[in-house]
Amino acid sequence: MSSVSPIQIPSRLPLLLTHEGVLLPGSTMRTSVDSARNLQLVRSRLLKGTSLQSTILGVIPNTPDPASDAQDLPPLHRIGTAALAVQVVGSNWPKPHYTLLITGLCRFQIVQVLKEKPYPVAEVEQLDRLEEFPNTCKTREELGELSEQFYKYAVQVCFPYQTRIHPCCSHPILSSTLCLTSSLYSLVEMLDMSVPAVAKLRRLLDSLPREALPDILTSIIRTSNKEKLQILDAVSLEERFKMTIPLLVRQIEGLKLLQKTRKHKQDDDKRVIAIRPIRRITHIPGALEDEDEDEDHDDIVMLEKKIRTSSMPEQAHKVCVKEIKRLKKMPQSMPEYALTRNYLELMVELPWNKSTTDRLDIRAARILLDNDHYAMEKLKKRVLEYLAVRQLKNNLKGPILCFVGPPGVGKTSVGRSVAKTLGREFHRIALGGVCDQSDIRGHRRTYVGSMPGRIINGLKTVGVNNPVFLLDEVDKLGKSLQGDPAAALLEVLDPEQNHNFTDHYLNVAFDLSQVLFIATANTTATIPPALLDRMEIIQVPGYTQEEKIEIAHRHLIPKQLEQHGLTPQQIQIPQVTTLDIITRYTREAGVRSLDRKFGAICRAVAVKVAEGQHKEAKLDHSDVAEGEGCKEHILEDAKPESINDATDLALPPEMPILIDFHALKDILGPPMYEMEVSERLSQPGVAIGLAWTPLGGEIMFVEASRMDGEGQLTLTGQLGDVMKESAHLAISWLRSNAKKYHLTNASGNFDLLDNTDIHLHFPAGAVTKDGPSAGVTIVTCLASLFSGRLVRSDVAMTGEITLRGLVLPVGGIKDKVLAAHRAGLKQVIIPQRNEKDLEEIPGNVRQDLSFVTASCLDEVLNAAFDGGFIVKTRPGLLNSKL
Prior knowledge:
The chain has 31 helices and 24 strands.
């Protein structure tokens, strides 16, 4: 075979200093680039260069860490490897760095360092030949007598695996190279040839030139950096062959020892299996277990028995049988062993066909619901309807209910009562702040620490397939990079799809159609429309004052007495006192604050009771008989005395302790809410509106003032865009009807904004406000301002307006009316098309309030002012019309 001229590397090479390993010719290595010099080299030569020579680097092994970025260039190793940069990968996190894939070409020697900054460049001398075809004759001359010695070493190395030498290869150099090749083949054949990488290595060795074997062999076998550095420094081919043989011998001996150890272990395992009882191998059902048997094996047998006797569907059963077969073949040390076992245990524990029997006695269910909750007739009616239909049809799918209402009205407790009424298990799933869809659907088993979702985990907890699931705070679901849990709930809460719900962890279908899902929310505004469409919305409005009084004396007060160790013989809270707490110390749609106030009262009374028992014990010890007439009654008409002053009495208080308004003031402090409606409406330009919030209905004051200016309208109070548009609609309608109602500015002009600025303010400026229902209130407020008349102090209103003066319907009428009733107002103006909503108002509230339904702004103004807002006509205009 003819040879060609050797390939020359450039005489000047940029130097890449590495500390992670030693690159030898013919081998490939990945190295990280994070020092300043190396970073500058990569950016200048590799990323900007376009020629092939720009990708050839001089790789110098460097003992000191190049990441130290010292000012001076460290001492350089004399011999390096010319390398070709095959791949460059970069990243900026946590700091800029690159990763290079480099392939060694040949050795070189540094002649002179030409420059050190920004990266070192040196003049080099090539030491190895780079030829497309190797020159075998030249190699023979270089090796000389080494071939005989190397042949002897190679035979010793591959003694158990001797390879016959072909007669044509009788030349010493050919014999030596062939022996080295056979030694390397012996090393490869000791490995598992079924592994694709090993088979590929065998094919690669067939195509390698023989003189490249020492460098490549040193890179393949296990060697230290120091040994690789010695091979790199061996410029002579003869010296490299001498240094490679001991490394190859050491590797082969290590593999022989490893194979011998594995063989002994396999023989021991076979011996243990042979002495096991036959019934342990065949898994005979019903066989008694000996105490000395392997515990883990017994668990697998029991698990397999549970799978056979379980009532899971056919698809799930096939998956479990397949997994149990895989589990038997796995060693216990594998991480997948525990994962597969946990999966099978979950599959066995799930209630595939286990369910509870519903109590279908409607009369008993009605009594139970009435005892647990006062009012809430709409909720009770829906539950009783479900019971009635369930009694007529056994395979009724569970409904998807959503209770929407302000906090503290009992949405969660109603869900618990529904489960109690039906005789079902109850499980609550808190969804507030959940932002990962895996919480609903579970994690795939390929992830470390994977778990089923909350739905499947809840079914495992309750142990039946028809529980009552309460999805609490469904309106507060989040969204993140891990997915949208609201989208994952679409399958769960769809009666047409949840019979085939697939959790990512189970990877088999589970029937959720018998589960009664109840969701709770404070508002539907934040619930996605697709999810809202799958649920049956049931509004849960706030309570009236009468309902709160009943709830307090039926449920809240007995609960607080029990929690504080008190009895009705020790404390009495009259209904008048309860009404004072509701009106003066709380202002809410629910009863949570009311419950906390009762708790504060019980704690104060508990202090008095404990001190009285201590004093009574002292009196009994001293045989003191006085004090029979000493009583502590805190009566409403009596002289106000602080309950805390009872510590000055020498005798214990007589029970029960009666709580009146003066005791409330001592315990709870001065009233937090005073009726200020009449004071706020003592001057023109103020009106009362009604607003809906997620916390219930609220009254809202609207104030207006005018001053000299340029006709600007100023709006304050953190208003949304809709409320700002309502304000502009109101001022436009009043300007267009100023002559009709004889409304003038300060100078008597019908142009209300002529040289006049108007300022509209909605108090409680820290609260964001928006919505169209304040339109009629703004019109009334501005009409009062420009007419100089006072708005009635007992009137509140709500409704959307148009530019033509029509009043459009709005939502939340019941909550708004209850807010007006709590504030002590007497009349409420609502849109005429909202008259149907008055049927939901409790009868006692309708009796206390008078309602005015308006279809246009004329009717609103006539009802908002005493004597009506009559159209004023000048006499001249009247005569001209006649």
